[in-house]
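Entry: Gnk2-homologous domain-containing protein
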Amino acid sequence: VYTRSSESALAYPYHYCPNTTLFTPNSTYGSNLDALLSSLSSTANNSTDGFANATAGQNPPDQAYGLFLCRGDLDTAACSDCVSTGKQEILQRCPNQRVSVIWYDECMLRYSNESIFSVMEEMPVIRLANATNVSDPARFRQVLGRSIREVAYMASGSASGKKYATTEMNFTSLQRLYTMAMCTPDLMELECNRCLLSLNDILEREQIVGAFTPSCNARFELYPFYNVTAVRASPPPPVATSEGSPPPPHPPPVTTPEGKNNKFTVITIVIVVPTGGVMILLFLT
């Protein structure tokens, strides 16, 4: 089930609980999970890269694996606050679940009773949509596609401890497109690139402004939604034209490792937020 929490102070909170893997209260896994989440929250207090993973417990199936990923423009204090909030909310919204993910605009926190480290997972997908009014939709899609592909390659090829990148492009002389992409840093460069390009297809095809998965996310807006002074964004190029270099080819499709269960129930939830006119479309594919 995907849920948006209107009472949360953090932006765009959603969670995923498959409701197929439960543990009993006061069990060994429950104790390991508590220790895991405490360890991740403590680590976030001193994290400079906005990412960490950890394991608690010695013997399967009671080992708990977890990680957090903060948006690349956040400072340590903001990242720590988000992870700390997620630590509390994920247990409330997914009680007794062996597998859970919670997303905010600022960070993601997830855990499982199976190793999730260095494994690309493109499901489930959260779609974020709002009303974007542009004068030339066809041209906007062209600029958007170029922007997302560029930022995907920048993020996946980042030499820093973060697989995070932003870029700005002029859509018109008065409108600028802001785009962000990021992956969990434990992914290989090719895996990160493939994950982000799969989101590129979703954003272009479905005309939504953002998509989140357990391994990567991408978003664009016509306003600065990240801290532009905290990131080294690419200088905006001239207004895009219909002619230019063709986009880089898409990598081959990713195959799902054997043993993974990718059968998801399709759930659609549409929520209208009066303050910003934003619709959140959430469903599994």
